[in-house]
Amino acid sequence: MVLRVLDQDAEQDGLVLALLRMTSGSSSERISPGSMLGSVFAHLAAASLGLLAGAMLLIAVAIVPYLTSLEPLEFARWFREHSPLLGRIMLPLGVSATVLALAAAALVPLLSSPQLPWLAAAAALAVAVAAVYPLYFTRANASLAGASLGPSEVSGELRRWRTWHWARTVAGTLAFLAALRALSLSGG
């Protein structure tokens, strides 16, 4: 695509609208500011969902196996010390990925219609990933970080934690793939 910025366009429509006028050979194939906004949100959603899926996968394949190798008391100490650090990364990443996926799905009428089911699926899966946190992980993380569980209870809770984490990792990865599919349908 060729970016065409003419002085008279900049004077008439303002520089922002002039920059949004992209053509692919003819002036009749222009991208509207609304569809440009939808495209930006679709790209941001895909990027943030990819980061979230990657971070969850890292936790699943590197951190959780390490944690399961620890003795219950050592695990509780590690979890108490490090889970807030992970939360400072994962919570904003999860919220931003969900908000961007919802925004992209809401703006899909401004994009090509084949993207609709893929962006809607990405948004629904992102909401599912986000919903699991208050429904399970808030309580489980507090239990695992506290000294309220006995050694046998720590092992059982960690097994449940691992199962729920894999479920949200799969959902997050599917959300990322759905967002990528939507982008592939737009040529983006």
Tags for this entry?
elongated, 80% helix, 2 domains, two-stranded antiparallel ribbon, mainly alpha, 188 residues
Secondary-structure element string? EHHEHHHH
The major beta sheet can be summarized as: 2 strands, antiparallel
**How many helices in DSSP terms?**
6
Mean pLDDT: 82
- The helix content, as a percent range, equals over 70%
Inertia-based shape: elongated
Give the structural class. Answer: mainly alpha
Q: Which strand order does the major sheet show?
A: 1-2
| Number of DSSP-assigned strands | 2
Radius of gyration, Cα only, in angstroms?
Answer: 22 Å
Q: Kindly, what is the distance between the CA atoms of the first and last residues, rounded to a whole number of angstroms?
A: 12 Å
Number of domains: 2
Question: Unreliable stretches, pLDDT < 50, 5 or more residues?
Answer: 1-33
Beta percentage is under 5%
Structural notes for this entry:
The chain is mainly α. The chain has two domains: 1-31, no CATH class; 32-186, no CATH class. Helix content is 80%, strand content 2%. The protein has six helices and two strands. The chain has helices spanning 7-13, 15-20, 33-68, 72-106, 116-145, 151-186; strands spanning 2-3, 22-23. It has a two-stranded antiparallel ribbon with strand order 1-2. Helix 4 (72-106) runs parallel beside helix 6 (151-186) and helix 5 runs antiparallel to helix 6. The protein is elongated, with a radius of gyration of 22 Å. It starts with a strand and ends with a helix.
